[in-house]
Amino acid sequence: MAATDEADVVRTELRWAAAMGGVVTLIFAAILYAALTMHINPPSNIEVIDPKTLHLSGEFTESNLGTRVGADGAVVARIVATQFMFVPDCVVLPAERKVTLRFASPDVMHGILVTGTNVNTMVVPGYVSQVHTMFRTTGELLMPCHEYCGFGHSQMLGRVRVVPPDQFRPDADGRVSCGA
Ligand code: CUA
Fold first, then answer.
1. Could you identify which of 44, 77, 109, 150 might form a hypothetical disulfide with 67, taking C-beta atoms 3.0 to 4.6 angstroms apart as the criterion?
2. What is the residue with the minimal CA distance to atom 1 of ligand 1?
3. Phi and psi of 173, rounded to 5°?
4. Contacts of 53 (CB under 8 A, 6+ apart)
5. Mind listing the pLDDT tens digit for each residue in 87-112?
């Protein structure tokens, strides 16, 4: 079975190179397809935040968490991912409208995904994780932590309540919450 001369060796190597080239092309095509048609991309936002003080001042203080509609009409949900819960554990967002989700962690690395959507990111202490999306369907979507973060990891679960645009009614401060 041993290759008898150099021509055999070259032929074999070229065959392997072609096969591997095909595999690489296939993987790149899959990545491109997911990016262009399903809007699945690696997060590109780089924004630092001090995990030790994020609850004391600024964007991620408790009173600021949850969904808020800004004066410009932008819908932003701010969520803290912490051992072993999301704060708040439920957010309301409108369907068929561009929304932004922003996450920060005060302790360890968490990961979130919203089931059935393209929302999927790590939440790394020291950084704000930001995802833009548009929900196409309404209903209660589960948002589990998908990065092992300690003994309570499997209990770490949030919800995103996607409501029809006409049922998304912010209060005077632009806030919408699951409790209301
Ligand atoms: Cu948080 Cu796993």
1. 77
2. 110
3. -90, 5
4. none
5. 999 999 999 999 999 999 999 999 99
